Amino acid sequence: MMAISQADDSSENTGIDLVIARIRKDFIARLIERSLMLESLKAEVTSSQQPERAISAIGEMAHKMAGVAATLGLQRLGKLSMQLDDLIGSARSSGQAASQTWLIAEGAVEDLLDEMEALLDQSES
Q1: Distance between CA atoms of residues 88 and 40, nearest Å
Q2: Which of 54, 82, 115, 119 qualifies as a cystine partner to 66, CB 3.0-4.6 A?
Q3: Cα–Cα distance measured from residue 38 to residue 54, given in angstroms and rounded to the nearest whole number
Q4: CA-based angle 50:55:61, to the nearest 5?
Q5: C-beta separation of 70 from 101 below 8 A
Q6: pLDDT digits (tens, 9 = 90+) for 40-55
Q7: CA distances from 77 to 61, 67, 69, 96, 109 (A)
Q8: DSSP code at position 94
Q9: Are 113 and 39 in contact (CB under 8 A)?
């Protein structure tokens, strides 16, 4: 078996770090689209005849962001996304009405939007 030298290992890690940094930058750049979609879904919850669809879409969005954000080192965004996903998932599995689910989840949506905005602000500075 051939031993991998320290230099080879270091350059490989640097390459991986660069790829992850690029993916992270792209992910943060797309947060504006995600935040606009979240705002739209939030409005749909309160003005729609079918708020369940919007709440479900918010939960799906939070679920996807939770995994990706944590992987990219955006721990707070990942945590807030996971909390929102858990809140909506628990409410839906217990059969709560959409209006009750929204009362529980609305604050978590606002916290998530605030974190998304903070990350966007940081990326611009």
Answers
A1: 17
A2: 82
A3: 9
A4: 135
A5: no
A6: 999 999 998 889 999 9
A7: 12, 10, 6, 26, 11
A8: T
A9: yes
* Cβ(77)–Cβ(116) below 8 Å: yes
Measured between alpha carbons, how far is residue 92 from residues 26, 38, 62, 77 in Å? Answer: 32, 19, 15, 22
Residue with tokens 């609305």: 106
Question: Rounded to whole angstroms, how far apart are CA atoms 100 and 109?
Answer: 14
Residue with tokens 């409005």: 43
Q: H helices within 4-125, ranges in order?
A: 6-29, 31-47, 51-71, 75-93, 98-124
User: Two tokens at 116?
Assistant: 């998304």
Q: Is the pLDDT of residue 83 over 90?
A: yes
Mean residue pLDDT of the chain comes to: 89
Which residue's entry shows tokens 């995600």?
A: 34
